[in-house]
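Sequence only, no structure available. Ideas?
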Amino acid sequence: INAEYMGENSSFSLFVSNYWQMGSSGATARLPTESESAVLQHVRTRLGQTFGSDVAESDTVLRSLFAAIPDRPDDAQYESCGTIWQYIGFQNTNPLSDLGRGGGTLSALNLLFFARNCSAVVSAMRLRQREKRAASNAERGYPWAASGISITRMCCALVGLIHPTAGSSTQPSEKKWYPFLVAGLPPAAAGDDLLANFHELYCIAFELFDEAYTAADATYMQFNSVVQQTRERLGAALDTLADSAASGSNELSPRALRSQLGLPPRS
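Reply:
I predicted one. Tokens follow.
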């Protein structure tokens, strides 16, 4: 056999290396690359940043979130503290009381992205849950914004930044689908631009959660159980998609994940 053909950097050696990384039945779990780690680090940073610690940024985000809510009353006026925030789905008239309880600035940015980019879906979700809560004296249905904070933490657990039950900080473990986090990102992406695919993952997770919660006609006592089911379903779907991408039959992207899960394309 030609020695050059068998050399360390030969096409044959690269094929063998890629084969073993991919595995005989699909992708193989691994730790994140440098670019993937940069995304995860920024997610961790924004999760750990207390919402309200940067007063100017927090005010801008809240004003933007207020403006992005598709079904807010026509006569509603922005105020930093008031009943409009309970209408939006926070548990109190001051949104900082919810946003300060574990989701950090990341949870506010996730909610804003979802409201801005999936307005029809958000409007339908919110209407459905308001009706359920009104008909059951708030025993069924869920408060949209407050629940969205839990979805942020669920996504952070999914990518390996926090423990799924204890909630404590953890280090990323080996996963098949880390390339999802950087799919389509510009090479020079930095700052909050690194959150693009995490935002997409959040939207998908929230839609799956709403679907499961509605199908089960769940009460708020079942909330954590539905969150866990959603995390497990989403993790399994990402693993399957990673295997398909490794075999060349699909791409490891938000669009492909939506298609696999039967969710409509994001408009």
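The first helix runs from residue 11 to 22.
Hope that gets you unstuck.
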